[in-house]
Amino acid sequence: MSTINFGPDLRAVAKIEAIPMILRMVKQVTGMRFAAVARVTDKQWVTCAVDDSIAFGLKPGDELALETTICNEIRQHRTPVIFAHASEHPLFSRHHTPKLYGLESYVSIPIVRANGDFFGTLCAIDSAPANLDIPVITETLTLFAQLIAANLDMQASVDESQQELAMEKKTGHLREQLIAVLGHDLRTPLSAIRMGADMLESKLIDRPERRLATAIQSSAKRMGSLIENILDFARGRLGSGIPVEPQIVETLESDLQRVIAEIATAHPLASIEQSISVAPLNRCDPVRLCQLLSNLLANAVTHGERGGLIKVNISVEACHLVISVWNRGVPIEPELMPKLFQPYTRSEQGQREGLGLGLYIAAEIVRGHNGTIGVTSSEADGTCFTARLPTLTVPAQQATLLPETPPAPDNHP
To answer: What are phi and psi of 269, to 5 degrees?
Structure first.
């Protein structure tokens, strides 16, 4: 008979490292020379593990005809069967199993899973009589059978968890790939919308119509920002991380000022106070730093007091570019703090704008620069996000001494 359906059971028993020791202990406790773990169903008897010193001839995966075994009876009544001298036993001297296999001594203990399913038996046999009258033998072998059942349950739980984890990883990977593809493909029609809105605004004279074109531009710009956030999130979650391309830049201060001006224009009720002092030359990714500042400012506008003061401070401290954004408002809930930079995290007290990716992307940008980001929040001191990024800066007095272009390499020896 085929054993293909018992492959998982054979592998599960083989994974239990204690099985060989248990079988040796069964032989020592009973004084018998053959011990095995058998898988028993209503149709088949299959060896899962064996310790054989009498050359009985079974190995893992071998079968015995179910009707020739006592284990089929044990499967039905689920109680141990023990006899020490079959030929002198009132019942088993007439039983077909000892006669068929030449057995004198026999022990078989049911292995029952935690859910009540009958798995099989832990058994020992010998062609010679054995001394099995000691009560501790049955108790010990019953404990061994329970240990095997517990290990099978634990192994099944681990296997199920691993399968669920693998499926979740596969599903998550496909989902994030879909997000990336959708985000990329949405750029083309959005570009057409923005170009159309720009053309309308330049041609329309009537003020209400120009306002409509301006509203289309604003919505398209916001949609573009959401798409970029989706793409950055997909890149980060797919393992490649948000790309950061550090370079020596001379316009970092003006770039950051432009971001603040854009946020102020988009949110005219916000009062933004800024203090920016950076070196003329900085090594960083200016596009990503502008995105970082924009996300922190947008977060302050969304969750701070409506029309309240927002302070932006950007400076260089100990070879680190320090960007801090402070606002007054309802403090961040303590239970939210540990997961604040995770995706889709939002405060219950704030507005429900955006995708909940802004702080996650900000943290990824900081990580890409090998920096750190943190937050403090209290009723008395307000909320302050601070990012610290290592940067190569050149003092102003030295910047004028740097050549506009690097010298050509000297090829002479």
So the answer is: -80, -20
CB 355 within 8 A of CB 226: yes
**CATH 3.30.450.40: which residues of the chain?**
4-160
Backbone phi and psi for residue 51, each to the nearest 5 degrees, phi listed first: -130, 105
> Distance (Å, rounded) from C-alpha 78 to C-alpha 394?
83
Give the E-state strand segments of 113-237 in sequence order. 118-126
Give the pair of three-digit tokens for residue 142: 């019953």
DSSP letters of 375-386?
Answer: EEEETTTEEEEE
pLDDT tier, 346 (very low <50, low <70, confident <90, very high otherwise): low
- Residues 275-300 have pLDDT tens digits of 999 988 888 899 899 989 999 998 99
| pTM passes above 0.70 | no
Which residue do the tokens 């309240």 mark? Answer: 308
- Contact assessment for residue 70 and residue 64, using Cβ atoms and an 8 Å cutoff: no
| 252, 278 contact by CB (below 8 A) | yes
| CB-CB neighbours of 172 under 10 Å | 12
| CATH of 4-160 among 3.30.540.10, 3.30.450.40, 2.40.128.20, 3.30.559.10 | 3.30.450.40
Class of domain 164-237: mainly alpha
Identity of the amino acid at 43 = K
Residue with tokens 């002479």, as numbered in its chain: 412
The C-alpha atoms of residue 33 and residue 125 are separated, in whole angstroms, by: 7
The burial of 320, by beta-carbon neighbours within 10 Å (0-12 exposed, 13-18 middle, 19 or more buried), is given as middle
DSSP state of 397: H
Q: What is the DSSP letter of 349?
A: T
Written as one letter, the residue type at 318 is: A
CATH 1.10.287.130 in the chain is located at 164-237
Q: To the nearest 10°, the Cα dihedral for 381, 273, 290, 199?
A: 130
Q: Classify the C-alpha dihedral 186-192-195-199 as positive or negative.
A: negative
C-alpha 343/C-alpha 119 separation (Å) is: 45
Residue range 22-31: average pLDDT? 95
Q: How far apart are CA 292 and CA 301, in angstroms?
A: 14
Distances (CA, A) of 367 to 108, 132, 217, 288, 374: 61, 68, 32, 11, 12
Q: Which CATH superfamily is domain 247-399 in?
A: Histidine kinase-like ATPase, C-terminal domain (3.30.565.10)
Tell me the CA distances in angstroms from 363 to 150, 173, 242, one per residue in order: 44, 21, 10
